[in-house]
Specification:
Diaminopimelate Epimerase, Chain A, domain 1; 2 domains; 15 helices; binds manganese (II) ion
Length: about 425
Amino acid sequence: MAFPRNSLRAFLTHAKKSLFTAIQSSQKVTIVVGNESADLDSLTASVLYSYIRSLAPPSGAFTPLYIPVLNIPDADIRLRPEFSAVFRHANIDASYLVTLDDVLGVHGTAFRPEKTKIILVDHNSLRGELGKDFATRVQGVVDHHEEEPRIVTDTSPEPRVIEKCGSCTSLVVRTLKPSWESGPGGSSLVSGAAHGQGDTVDNDASVTRNWDAQIAKMALASILVDTANLTAAGKVEQADIDAVRYLEAKINLSPQHAVQWDRTKFYECIDAAKRDIGALSFEDILRKDYKQWTENELNLGVSSVVKPLGFLAEKITGNPSEDKEDQFVTEIGDFMAARSLTIFAVMTTFTSSSGEFQRELYVQALSSGHAAAHRFAAQAKEQLKLEDHAVASLSEKPGSMQPSSEGPWRKIWLQKDVSKSRKQVAPLMRRAMKEAI
Ligand SMILES: [Mn+2]
């Protein structure tokens, strides 16, 4: 039976409770899982997909209830201050979410793969911990990353949507909005019969519209952050623009939310929360938005960081008399060793003092990754418009950033093509690793 229309808070409470009952009694479960960087887009895409699909499950659905899963352990939620900002608008908190710990049975019974179906949002191949046991259980993909080889082709009755878009949440909105509008409480926005704010509606409808407005705000948070409030050149697609228009119409249907709605202010508030990483340690900052791949049996890790490298270097708490650059290299080396990485990249984004959006790229490679790192440097220089870059606390020994056969290979660039994010840079690195044998 479909879940009756209710608030996100009620839905998540019901989903989490039902999930544990199902696991304990060995019943089937359908989970909707974002990628292992577990950024805001992955969170909102999985929650939105689960919520809408549970209102109106398709015929042939594995189960009528869809449960969102955050692809990180409980403890890592604290690394994402932007989540708290979004939770406040959606009237929930971290305790409402199901995490990787729950799936792997850290708190009790683990999921049984044969009883589980997985829908991927914001990635299209299951890696990491979940990939080991659950890769064959995927049935449904909505994603905006480069398509991986060997991904599932027949996902019926779930969608298989992989296309370029600023935010994956926009694709979820577009794919599922007919279900959101159908059934009791639907607002008929799809047929264009949107009501203006302030229309007289009966009590039930007004409660429903408040719930919808909360969920719309949650979804908007990702789309606005991923597209810099629809201004990021080369990132914004029609689906983003349409989704923002549709979700704002939902907010405007609720007089209570419409009256204080200011899109720019809302974007600035969530974006500021995302950049508020001052309280995090060096390692936490690298872990906050991290992805890992394996090519030719070599592991690649890439961290996205919302502050410049100089900020990261200041986070090192080691002996002040020791050389900052050496400590930086050692700390990065420790992070790599803990994950058996051959190549590690840190991609930073920040706004310069003159208001210009900028990107830095730091790469460190073990000797077994020298060939791939060189190949990447040669190939990507033109494509990413890489320029040699000096960072005050990390450039006292410029020679040490040159390739050498001993010790780690290191390089700092300014990435002048700022339109290329990890979505484009990681595939270039992986290609270099595949080719450099
Ligand atoms: Mn995404």
